[in-house]
Amino acid sequence: MAQQRTVPDSRQLAPTAERQLYKITEAAVILGLSRSVLYEQMRMTRPDGRPRLRSVKQGRTRLIPAAAIREYVALLEHEAEVADDRAA
Predict the structure, then answer these.
(1) Which of 4, 12, 24, 83 has its CA 20 to 30 A from that of 40?
(2) How many structural domains does the chain have?
(3) 2 domain-assigned
(4) What is the pLDDT of residue 37?
């Protein structure tokens, strides 16, 4: 009889281990946006040609790095500051 191997759930890992990759639905919840908006932001590019929201693929799964989520939030904050400066 073959032994079954179990993969530990991410909640069972050390509490200090920060997740590095998120599924689209998870990133959408974190950012408070819809899946459609996330896909749109991944397709859109900044003036320098980089995507507004970076993603990676693992097999057929599209994932968002934790660093990309932080960069996207910083980009939105920067755009808001620029818009405020123009309005003033």
Answers:
(1) 83
(2) 1
(3) no
(4) 97
Measured CA to CA, the distance from residue 49 to residue 83 in angstroms comes to: 21
Q: Is the pTM of this model over 0.90?
A: no
Domain range enclosing 28? 19-87
In a domain? residue 79: yes
For residue 22, the SS3 value is strand
Q: Give how far Cα 23 sits from Cα of 31, 56, 63, 64, Å.
A: 12, 10, 5, 6
pLDDT digits (tens, 9 = 90+) for 55-85: 999 999 999 999 999 999 999 999 999 887 7
Say if residues 22 and 69 touch (Cβ distance below 8 Å). Answer: yes
64 contacts 21 by C-beta, under 8 angstroms = yes
For residue 6, give Cα distances in angstroms to 3, 11, 59, 83: 10, 14, 21, 51
Which band of pLDDT confidence, cut at 50, 70 and 90, is reported for residue 22?
A: very high
